[in-house]
Amino acid sequence: LYLGRGHRVLVLTYQPLTTRKNGRHYERADNLTIVRMPWLRGRFFYWFENYPLIQVAYLASGLLIELMIMLMLTLFRPKRIVALGLSALVAGWVASFINRRCQLECVLLTIYRFANRPFLSRVMSWLVARVDRFYALSGEARDDLMAVSGVGSAVSFELWVDQDKRFFPRIESSSPRDRQASISPRTALFVGRFSPEKGIHDLLQLI
User: Fold this and answer.
1) What span, in angstroms and rounded, lies between the C-alpha atoms of 48 and 90?
2) 33 close to 27: Cβ distance less than 8 angstroms
3) Could you tell me which residues are beta bridge partners of residue 135?
4) Would you tell me how many other CB atoms lie within 10 Å of the CB of residue 83?
């Protein structure tokens, strides 16, 4: 989206945390730069899934280190920080105090059930004051955010996938499996972990 508007985009992320495979530490093409930082990997991610605050601390600390290095040791001064997830929001929230002119936006990709987690909701309410806009990618995510005090006016509902049209992939192979896929009445594409909070059960009901 931002590349299409002519922005220069810097993506700060981790090397894969749940596998032993590594991506390139640094990639650059045109206006897009990707920096992947090594971090604690293995079963940590799954161990912390039932403890949101611990998982946020685990994921946010490395991103914060990476972001602070970019802000303090380089001339990197972004006009906008877009945080993907609560952990990235914590890192972006701290960095926004160093670079107060930048806008801070957040896309929440997980249902945190703030209404049932008052302490987590309180932590989130502390972060809200610095966030210019939240993007909710589903009605459930929007409702989840609305349970946090002070979020209401900052929520924008965005749908990244056109649900009114069916997705028909371009089939170039002549294998029986691909031919069957090409004539299937509906083909679903799921990108994400196979876990309840990612909506896999909803997808299975639809197809």
Assistant:
1) 17
2) yes
3) 107, 156
4) 25
Strands (E), the chain: 9-14, 26-29, 32-37, 80-84, 103-108, 133-136, 155-157
Contact between 114 and 127 under an 8 Å Cβ cutoff? The reply is no
Residue type, 61: S
CA-to-CA distance for 42 and 168, rounded, in angstroms? 36
pTM value? 0.68
Return the closest-CA partner of residue 132 out of 148, 158, 153: 153
Instruction: Compute the radius of gyration of the chain from its Cα atoms.
Output: 19
Identity of the amino acid at 22: N
pLDDT tens-digit readout, 150-162:
777 667 766 555 4
Tokens of 1: 């989206």
Instruction: Report residue 111 as tokens.
Output: 């249902």
Helices 86-98 + 118-128 axis angle, to 10: 30
- Closest C-alpha to 63, from 135, 126, 108, 11: 11
Tokens 């995510």 -> residue: 141
pLDDT for 153-201, tens place per residue? Answer: 667 766 555 445 544 444 455 555 555 555 555 666 777 777 666 667 7
The rounded distance, in Å, linking the Cα atoms of 15 and 20 is 9
Quote the tokens at residue 162.
Answer: 């056109």
